[in-house]
Write a structure and sequence with these properties.
The structure is a homodimer. Chain A is an alpha+beta fold. Chain A is built from 21 helices and 28 strands. In chain A, about 35% of the residues lie in helices and about 20% in strands. In chain A, helix 7 packs across helix 20 and helix 14 packs antiparallel against helix 15. Chains A and B meet through helix 1, helix 3 and strand 23 of A and helix 1, strand 12, helix 3 and strand 23 of B.
């Protein structure tokens, strides 16, 4: 597949998603490669029909998101001959298309046709405090669209259309008019997805093919229930410009998850697809205004176009992965699906989503932390390399809470296996650090003292657990992880960078994890200091000092700190600085001061950074960031995070060439089908596709409006 | 695809389905072509793993219903190299396999392994009268299986396994053990399908591939939640023979239909997949006994093997299409899906399912009739050919109630279009006759006088409507349809034989429909006579006489009655006799007596039959029945019906060669994927695949145990 220079950057799938519905209207890639997706790990691969009768009346033109359907009539009428496909609809020429892609709007222009999707990145108010009205505005499982045809220069009336050919295997397409009780016109598939409109003059049609809907033998046959394609239609008279409004709606009733049986939270307010449609259309103006306001906010930010593009794209993918549930016991449960993998609340993603979530809806961080400590915590023992004895370990948390709507059993993730050294091993130390970093971030951001007090035993257990993992012998502690969880059964823990080599993948003595662990100790110190718990505060302070000193000590003569401390490793990694984001976000300016208590650590990291940012080391040829000198697998979410840390902590100037490279990766035709993806191997999305994690870019806005 | 002579007749998909759950465990076709299907129009196309460790310990052998999965680990660990597939499991050789296929059991034997599925064709008691216990026994959405390994001659312990790789796009595979609270062991996909066991020693495993489950690096990793394959495992020690029990469970919560919002009736008793599993295992003995009893009953019937095979196969496919719902207004709604097309309660199938349903659960016929008269009735006017004036018409009923869980709007089917002459046109006259035939059948079978009285206005309206369709001018009436519904907008009505040529497809003056209409008049006369309504009884009698005379008059010099009366048509059709089934079933011996009031009609039809049963006319070269002399499309459901009528009414001897041919059609490798199919074009299933309608064969049992 290739794309012309002209259209480069136009054809890429993007999410247009409500929040918490695990639903997305995905479009942008050519062909039947987007659509109305519900609970999927990738695009729905449906034909979308968005277009208008051509001005010369010779046929119809549509945005290029469809394939011509076979005429399914042949399945029924086996004696009939093959019918020639009339092919009334042709895609607009690539060169005729322009796309204006923003955070909350996505506008396509082709000739005198304009199509805009509105999907505001709405915060979700705390359900314990919010009014039903506020929750409904936020949670309505719908996104919005306008289709405009400017026929002021036209000589004849022209039909516009917006429809799809659904891919849900369990139900047929249908018209919703009979169930709409006059409130709207609609088409949909089963009880799960629909496109509806209350604009005057919009009518619905269904047929085996779009052609049969656009040119029905009789208008009455637009009601044909067996048709696998359905569309909304309207007519724009000659000399007129008309805009039609649509809501693209999603709904799934009942218990949708196992393990922790739960339904979508929105079902509290919306018992059916039709109720979603009615509400969505009634609130169209509000929702459109929210989207436009979000766009204005991002436009006002001092970001480059390349940054703005990536931020918008990443946030959209995060929204498409969100799933807000209400358990059978009536407890709210916030979940984010892990893109193509659909793991639920992968903790090492949670800690990256954190910055966005705290600014938008901090209660979801609390909610995730509570679920981790209630159901997905465990206590282990630990082992030292080459030593089969078990030493005291302590509390930690699972990698995730399950996968694809199946919550895993208590105290276990879906991901972590036993007895491994690489991918799928346990992440005990990392997730322990992640709980601490998330919890400290939550308490500092919200000043929720009640939650802090309630969780003090957990904080204390976390500290004890961290210290035990440093070394069983207090005299040998250096602030850095030395012991692997006994859950590894003799294997070794890994980090979130599971598919990279040792440079980032091994947890023990890992530089990335060591800096993050130092941050966790700083956070714990703040927690205990604020609660006047002198002894644990002192222990945390001591451990932070040990960690800082250990890390700094490993700065070598070549000016970098090896990715694995003290094991002869020579990999150079950018995420050495990743953990600095926490003291920075917590406002611990003293800890980050060049002349503060951790001056040695900071100086070492500054030197490290200067050393590694060299082409062929931690820079690709195109200027893109290469997280590890020994691996071509680079993760955009983590790049975004480090792109925030480098200027914020080290006043390192931004590098526009890197942003341009990263944008180009996302727009590479090999990658555009997957919307925003994370794991880029030399610029090609090889894993973590259709992924939420890039919302780390939200940090870029910090200097602008936070 | 070809099949050896040895294995011919072994590899064909068959349904193993509970009743009313629109669910099926389909297996028998080689490859990943069966599985646990829910609400599908065809097999689920999942790999099923059913097998055992080979006696020599060299690997594993399984029934050939799987493909080796790719190792999905590569999706996660993008830096890992390609892993060679170990391929521990090989399919049993075709020649090693034997299958014993019966009505309610399906047994596969391969070496010392035996696998049996139990799925009794259970009647559904009337929910208005039945106990919860009786309803639960009938409706539990599960089928049952036993796996036996005879390792008495074995020298080592051997593992047996039963698992699958689910194809539901919305949820992952999982182990159910944590949710089973010690009651069972299970594997499943999301909240919808599962295989569970409470046999001692059965354990569950999950992995990317079956190999990873059979030979896990560590037993602990059998819990791996990301695995797309899951299986139950057990070990049979050397020298032992062990049998393990399984329940194959289905569940779908919440409103599943649109138009008429409804949930599965079974959700009254079973709120979750786990509750299905628990109940199913507890009732295993009962369910197994029901299956064995059903098999004994069919074995006792005086049927040939070819007949017995077709009856069992057809009944199974009917069960897989049944969907018993409870509306949001708490009304029971019985639906049968139309096989691959999934139309709901297609009325011209209902009238064929009737004979089975009356014998098993007559209340479902009443339920369907009530839904047709409440929601899917309409009143039209009629037109004569070449005449654009509207004449009085009357009451009729829609072709169906919707499609694929979408109930159509009131007074309209999903199928019927406007302004057509062929496939997808209206079936107004046919469905009117079908309501009458079903309603009379119900009242005569049940003696439900209350329902009869309540529906007298409908019966009267039906008579009026039938007469109006005969001819607007009373003097020109001849008992046969002459006027098409104005819903055709100038087009013409068709019959259920929509994909055949005029011989069976055109409704007006159609011989098949004329005989059925004559039967409807007879039935109406009985209804009115029994309710002492003399005038309508007389009118019905008169119309029956007119119809009989008209039909008989068209017997031509060549000894057949043309398929279309009086229009120069020369097609010869077997379904001329189809309508005779109704007076036969109603016990109207007088009407069928060779010397009775309709002697002329019966004599004409007997002559017609003798004429058409000639090779090349209404017999294929293989001896199979060819419904129409002018079309190679022949429908097994209707053949079965006429195979009952010919001996029952005309004492025409059965023709074993035909039964052998029809069985061979079903077992043709081109057709075996679709389980039982209806529309056979020269023996190839071209339409109406995976279809319920062959349950007409239940009539064959009439002489045996009714």
């Amino acid at each position: 597949m290739s794309t012309s220079t002209q259209s480069s950057g136009v054809f890429f799938n993007a999410h247009h998603a409500p929040v918490g519905a695990f639903a997305t209207f995905t479009l942008g890639e050519r062909g039947p490669r987007g659509g109305l997706g519900l609970e999927l790990g990738g695009p729905a691969n449906e034909s979308l029909f968005i277009g208008a009768e051509s001005a010369d009346g010779s046929g119809y033109e549509a945005l290029p998101f469809f394939a011509n359907s076979a005429d399914a009539a042949l399945r029924y009428d086996v004696s009939a001959g093959t019918q020639a496909a009339p092919g009334l609809v042709r895609p607009f020429a690539d060169t005729a298309l322009a796309r204006d892609f923003a955070l909350a709007t996505d506008t396509w222009r082709a000739g005198d046709l304009t199509f805009t999707v509105y999907s505001a990145p709405k915060p979700v108010p705390d359900p314990a405090r919010a009014s039903a009205a506020a929750l409904k505005t936020a949670l309505v499982p719908a996104v919005f669209a306008e289709l405009t045809l400017d026929n002021r220069h036209g000589t004849g009336a022209r039909t516009v259309f917006f429809g799809y050919e659904g891919s849900n295997p369990f139900a047929s397409m249908r018209r919703l008019d009979a169930d709409a009780r006059g409130k709207f016109t609609g088409i949909g598939q089963g009880v799960n997805t629909a496109i509806v409109s209350d604009s005057p003059g919009v009518r619905s049609g269904q047929g085996f093919t779009l052609d049969q809907i656009l040119r029905p033998d009789r208008e009455e046959n637009l009601t044909f229930g067996l048709g696998g394609t359905a569309a909304l239609l309207a007519t724009v008279p000659a000399g007129k410009r008309r805009t039609f409004r649509f809501a693209i709606c999603f709904h799934r009733e009942g218990i949708v998850t196992s393990g922790v049986p739960a339904r979508y939270y929105y079902t509290r307010f919306f018992p059916s697809l039709e109720s979603v449609a009615t509400y969505a259309l009634a609130s169209f103006d509000t929702q459109r205004a929210l989207a436009l306001a979000a766009d204005r906010r991002l436009s006002a930010a001092k970001l480059s176009d390349d940054q703005r593009f990536q931020l918008a794209h990443a946030v959209r993918s995060y929204f498409g992965s969100t799933e807000f549930l209400l358990t059978a016991a009536d407890e709210p449960l916030w979940a984010v699906n892990e893109g193509e993998y659909r793991m639920l609340n992968t903790f090492d993603l949670t800690v990256d989503h954190l910055f966005y979530e705290l600014r938008q809806n901090p209660w979801v961080v609390r909610n995730q932390l509570d679920w981790f400590s209630r159901r997905y915590a465990y206590t282990d023992t630990v082992r030292l390399p080459g030593d089969t004895r078990d030493y005291p370990g302590g509390l930690s948390f699972t990698h995730d809470m399950g996968v694809a709507n199946c919550f895993s059993r208590p105290r276990h993730s879906s991901y972590e296996k036993f007895g491994l050294h690489g991918c799928f091993s346990h992440m005990t130390h990392e997730q322990l650090v992640n709980w601490v970093c998330c919890a400290v971030s939550y308490t500092r951001h919200t000043s929720d003292r009640a939650w802090l007090k309630k969780n003090l035993p957990t904080f204390r257990a976390c500290l004890r657990s961290l210290v035990n993992r440093d070394h069983p012998d207090p005299r040998q502690r250096d602030g850095v992880m030395s012991a692997d969880s006994s859950r590894c059964l003799g294997g070794a823990e890994i980090t979130t960078y599971d598919s990279l080599d040792t440079s980032l993948g091994q947890a023990r003595n890992n530089l990335y994890l060591a800096v993050k662990t130092w941050a966790a100790y700083l956070g714990l110190r703040e927690v205990f200091a604020s609660t006047k718990l002198a002894a644990p505060a002192a222990l945390a302070t001591r451990q932070a000092g040990l960690a800082a000193a250990t890390i700094a000590r490993h700065l070598n003569a070549e000016g970098y700190i090896p990715a694995i401390l003290g094991e002869g490793n020579t990999s150079r990694i950018i995420p050495a600085i990743e953990g600095l984001v926490f003291p920075q976000q917590w406002g611990l300016d003293d800890a980050l001061a060049p002349d503060g208590p951790y001056a040695g650590l900071l100086a070492a990291l500054r030197t490290h950074l200067d050393t590694v940012f060299v082409p062929g080391v931690c820079l690709f040829a195109d200027g893109g960031w290469k997280l590890s000198s020994t691996n071509d697998n680079s993760w955009l979410s983590k790049i975004y995070l480090c792109q925030f840390v480098a200027p914020a902590v080290f006043a390192r100037p931004a590098d526009p060439r890197a942003d341009a490279a990263h944008r180009a990766w996302l727009l590479d035709p090999r990658n555009t089908y997957f919307a925003w993806s994370d794991q880029m191997v030399s610029g090609e999305a090889k894993g973590s596709k259709y992924y939420p994690r890039g919302v780390t870019a939200w940090l870029w806005l910090d200097s602008v409006f936070d």
